[in-house]
Amino acid sequence: MKLILTDCPLDSCLSLPGDVTWMDLSALQIRNCVGCFGCWTKTPGRCVIRDDAVKVYPLIAQSDKLLYVSRVKYGGYDTIMKTMLERAIPVQQAFLRILDGETHHVQRAVAPKQATILAYGPTSPEEQALFRRLVDRNARNMSFESWRVVFCPEEQVDARVKEEVDAWAES
Amino acid sequence: MGGIIILNGSPRAPRSNSKGYAQLFARYSALPTSYFEITGSNHPQLCAGLEDCKHVLLVFPLYADGIPVTLLNFLKSLEQSSLKNRPVISALINCGFLEPHQCDVAADMIRLFCAQNGYPAGSILKIGSGEAILESPFRFLAAGSVKKLARSIAREEYGAFQTTMPLSKGMFLSASTKYWLSLGRKNGVTQQQMQSMEIEP
Fold it and tell me: What's the rounded Cα separation, in Å, for the pair B81 and A131?
């Protein structure tokens, strides 16, 4: 399954191939994670907050090709994308395992992913390097088999998304 | 002027481990401290309060490998505020993983915020096994590190510190499993249920 999550509406996503699912997070109602661990210890695999996030994290889990489109802030994802990523922890178990010599959470039924992160907004080389380090850490906790970060100015986001979708179609 | 404002950036601040670390810090700090919890609606008051302090300590858990949204949104408000004062910003970051270095990216996000907005960066303390260490026999290690952090800020001799439980990864996994199973049991949830591979069953 191919999934695109964006933090803004995009014209390039209005006519996608049938095997690509697009979710514009800015159009959804997604509250902050409250850190209750209910999805690990009360209703395993299921968030206790029943808003739009519960439609999104199962798609994240199922996807094997993933495109995140997010503004960058302080070297990380800006609020909209970060809020969703924090709400995606039901895809993990409470229990830990050792991965690459470090402790990480066991994943539930999460497909290994080829992930592309399209990161936009004004960024310095230092901020870009930090963002890449963040995605490298995400890879261990979000089942990224491979990952790639593409930085671009905001006005080029639509065109770059189209390029990525075209590349999926050709692969 | 001269005191430390402690801001708890945990999404569950009133019942968070971050609150426990903040209390430890307040106990060891030679400078007077004031403690506040960041919410979605108190950013203007918190920003105004920073006008009269010399130091800020951000206390927060690692969330999805970075700073939690609760804190991110506050930093964005601080960036937009008309604050004239530029207190030194330090941070205490705790993560549930054994390795404190998993907090490195979050620490550098705080440093980057400081660099982008003209705030002097102070000390950083990274605590591995931070979800459990305060309730373990190794609490003294966390307390010792918090003491070092407090001393470094009071003396303005800033540095980076870290601590964790002195356990092998295997022992930590075993202890962690027992901890989570005990939480599940309190809710009447079995190990088998907690290990379900289903998402949104």
Answer: 25
pLDDT band at A122 (very low <50, low <70, confident <90, very high): confident
Please give the residue of chain B at the shortest CA–CA distance from A139.
B65
In chain A, domain spans: 2-170
Q: Does domain A2-170 have CATH number 3.30.499.10?
A: no
Class of domain B4-189: alpha beta
The verdict on a CB contact (< 8 Å) between A137 and B65 is: yes
Instruction: Give me the percent of chain A exceeding a pLDDT of 90.
Output: 98
DSSP string, chain A: -EEEEESS--GGGSS--TTEEEEEGGGS--PPP----HHHHTSTTS-SS-STHHHHHHHHHH-SEEEEEEEEETTEE-HHHHHHHHTTGGGEEEEEEEETTEEEEEESS---EEEEEEEES---HHHHHHHHHHHHHHHHHTTEEEEEEEEE-GGGHHHHHHHHHHHHHH-
Domain boundaries in chain B? 4-189
Determine the residue among B62, B196, B199 to mutate to test chain A binding: the one whose Cβ has the most chain A Cβ atoms within 10 Å: B199
Mean pLDDT (10-residue bins), chain B, 201 residues: 91 94 98 97 96 96 98 98 95 97 98 98 98 94 98 98 97 96 97 98 88
Residue type, A114: Q
- Per the structure block, which two tokens stand in for A128? 């870009």
pLDDT at position A171: 84
Conformation bin of residue B177: beta by default, left when phi > 0, alpha when psi is -120 to 50: alpha
What is the residue type of A13?
C
Residue B193 near residue B187, CB atoms below 8 Å: no
Beta carbons within 10 angstroms of residue A145's beta carbon? 11
Q: What is the number of residues in chain A?
A: 171
Amino acid B123 reads: S
The nearest CA of chain A is from the CA of B30 a distance in Å of: 31
Instruction: Return the residue of A nearest to B73 by Cα.
Output: A79
Tokens of B160: 């980076």
pLDDT of residue B1: 59
Tokens of B29: 């700090």
Look-up of token digits 């996030």: A53
